[in-house]
UniProtKB/TrEMBL annotation, chain A:
Keywords: ATP-binding, Hydrolase, Nucleotide-binding. NCBIfam families: 5-oxoprolinase subunit PxpB. The lineage of its organism: Bacteria, Pseudomonadati, Bacteroidota, Cytophagia, Cytophagales. It comes from the Bacteria. It comes from Hymenobacter cavernae. The keyword Cell membrane does not apply. This is Kinase A inhibitor. Residues 14-223 form the Carboxyltransferase domain.
TrEMBL record, chain B:
The keyword Manganese does not apply. Residues 24-321 form the Carboxyltransferase domain. It comes from Hymenobacter cavernae. The lineage of its organism: Bacteria, Pseudomonadati, Bacteroidota, Cytophagia, Cytophagales. Keywords: ATP-binding, Hydrolase, Nucleotide-binding. NCBIfam families: urea_amlyse_rel. InterPro entries: CT_A_B, Cyclophilin-like_dom_sf, PxpC. This is KipI antagonist. Pfam families: CT_A_B. SUPFAM superfamilies: Cyclophilin-like.
Amino acid sequence: MENLYPTPATRAEVQLYPLGESAVVVQFGDAIKRHAHHEVQALSAYLDAHPFPGFVEYVPAFTTVTVYYNPLEVSLAKEASPSDSVAETLKQMLLQTTTEAENTAPHVIEIPVCYGGKFAPDLAFVAGHTHLSQEEVIALHTQPEYLVYMIGFAPGFPYLGGMNEQLVVPRKEKPRTKVPAGSVGIAGKQTGVYSIQTPGGWQLIGRTPLRLFTPHGPTPSLLSAGDYIRFVPITEREYERTQQHES
Amino acid sequence: MSLSVISPGLLTTIQDLGRRGYRKEGVPTSGAMDTVALRVANLLVGNPERTAGIEITFLGPKIRFETDHLIALTGADLQPKLNGEPIKMNRPVAVRAGGVLTFGGLRAGSRAYLALSGGLAVPPVLGSQATYLRAGIGGLGGRAFKTGDAVPSAGLTELGRKIWQALIATQPAHAWAQAKWTPDPKLFPAPHESPFVRAIRGQEYDLFSEQSQHDFWQQEFIVTSDSDRMGYRLQGPTLARQEPGEVLSSAVAFGTIQVPNEGNPIALLADHQTTGGYPRIAQVVAADFSCLAQVQLGRKIRFREVSLAEAQELYAQQEKAITEIKQALHFKLTHL
């Protein structure tokens, strides 16, 4: 029978290991799976609510939560080595976390994207490579709700899951030296949005006027791990109107 | 209260001990590459260790102090001078308004730190004054110094003013005056060349071939010129995996040594991305971060394996040494 609700038995594959003397990694398996993601989310939420003495911050990723700590503050509080005592604290936390997040309604954020013209220099390539029309590429790209597995690579950059496999295309052979912020691209099985201007090799099919990284706001990243997003097609005029509103 | 940038040097930025709490949003910590040097520079002028200072890379700037300042220089030896006269590093120096700081050639290390009593009056971004060049945030408008910049300083603290007066009183007719003492070099060693860098095995160490594991600890690696505040690109024996394969992106840290598919390792530094998708062969120990950050481009380094327990002990010793410096300086500075 399929195990719909995770039990402690499914956590046998949890692994803890150090990343130097000021971080411990909690790893839930080694494949990108929704279940691992929910475990990552559950531990993240628990750490938000229950920071331990010496805790600095954590970074959720596809299958891991990396927990940074100040070894001096940890060792003041405990007899064991800082790394061992943080690992022990995290193991205790894992007994307390639940993956109920699975049952709560997902937070879906709409990302308006202008697919076409100067914003989509590689749309024709993607259509040609996938044997689809440009309209079909856009329809397939705007259809799913994408899960934000993690933020990384650059400030506010989301790693998304859920792209239709018909849209898989290789990276550009020669990366661009400057990809403008807001560019929406595809590389391999991944799709994403460039959050800041950076060099990059993804095939660009559109651009959003939204800012994914606002350093002067209270939460600099528009998106967080665990959010869902949907791309909504807009016209160039709507793009410009939204962009004015954003700045 | 300000400094005027007459010439900017190669890469001169405002740095503190970095951003905390935003790594999960993809924001690197940034901050000083050699945090120990910045912390000690701050202690020398009576500042809290976290205070923002100026990081000077390879080639020094020319800076005029428009008001009275109490300064200290630590880290790389770039032969600093005030009004053309050599000054010593690793001690507080009182400078009268109008004093001009210049530098000569790079003698040892890569990065010097200039601390100012009171620090710098630039707005914090995400809780830190550290410059993060790639996103253009923090420091002086998110960028390195340029000719003609007026860099706002916060002005002498009460303690800084007392130290300034005590030092200037020793040479009342001069444009500047420096302390005759310095922290114990045993506690705060100068940067040295081609060091051994101690490291522990990384989580993906076992993915590498036996030959590559052996080479990693036994062979030399050159710090190539394609290195920056994000990381050192190293060149030496090519490090090969036993079998090719994907590693899922996960968080990394200062000192993480990643190996991309072509086999040349990258040692991550202050502006490193928060996550990486390359196998991690090793992790440099925190006690050797300063040593790593001070290696000059083109020099060779070798890695030496230690255990996590040794790494933790080395870190505790480093912090104990800084605490000793702090206590000794507190006594000195309050009894001038």
